Structure formats: C-alpha cells, structure tokens
Amino acid sequence: MNPLTTVRRSKGLTLEQVAKNLDMHTTVLYEIEKGKKSTISERATNIATFYGIAVEDLFVPTYYRAKGT
C-alpha cells in the first residue's frame, strides 16, 4: 500500500470524503493514489496539507519544464 492510501485509511477517511474536502473528483484522487495519474505541485501540496504531512513524504518530486522546449 502506498503512503497516500495508508495515511487516508489511518485517519478513517474514504476517497469520497477526501475528494469532497479537496474539491476534486473521486476518480482523480483514486488515480493519484494508485499512481496512475501524476498531479501538479499545487494539488500535491493541498493533499499533503489536508493530511498534515510533508508533501515530500507523500509524493516523488518531479521535474518541471516549460512547454514547447
């Protein structure tokens, strides 16, 4: 089980509850949790803040590059 799922379950929360609190679709949160979808840094920060955990403890840092370069 990945850290996102572990922390959500440890807090007794469902995907639906977290998604509603973060104002995002349950499907998107599910795909992020399962590693099927990456996310922007702002959303990763929002998720981490909601759980009260450092973003680097939940997500792998990514490399950002300007489009078209």
Structural features:
about 70 residues; 5 helices; mainly alpha; single chain; about 0% strand; 434 Repressor (Amino-terminal Domain)
Notes on the protein architecture:
Residues 4-58 form the HTH cro/C1-type domain. This is HTH cro/C1-type domain-containing protein. This protein is mainly alpha-helical and 69 residues long. The chain has a single domain (3-54), classed as Orthogonal Bundle (434 Repressor (Amino-terminal Domain)), CATH 1.10.260. 57% of the residues lie in helices and 0% in strands. It has five helices and no strands. The chain has helices spanning 3-10, 15-22, 26-33, 41-51, 55-58. Helix 2 (15-22) packs across helix 3 (26-33). The protein is globular, with a radius of gyration of 12 Å. The termini are far apart.
Summarize the structure.
By secondary structure, the protein is mostly helical. The chain has helices spanning 3-10, 15-22, 26-33, 41-51, 55-58.
What general form does the structure show? globular
Helical content (DSSP H or I, runs of 4+): 55-70%
* Backbone CA Rg: 12 Å
Question: Would you identify the CATH architecture?
Answer: Orthogonal Bundle
Q: Characterize the biggest β-sheet.
A: none
**CATH level 4 superfamily:** lambda repressor-like DNA-binding domains
Organism: Bacillus thuringiensis subsp. higo
Domain HTH cro/C1-type: 4-58
GO molecular function: DNA binding
Protein name: HTH cro/C1-type domain-containing protein
Q: Could you give the topology of this structure?
A:
Blueprint: H1 3-10, H2 15-22, H3 26-33, H4 41-51, H5 55-58
Helix pairs in contact: 2-3
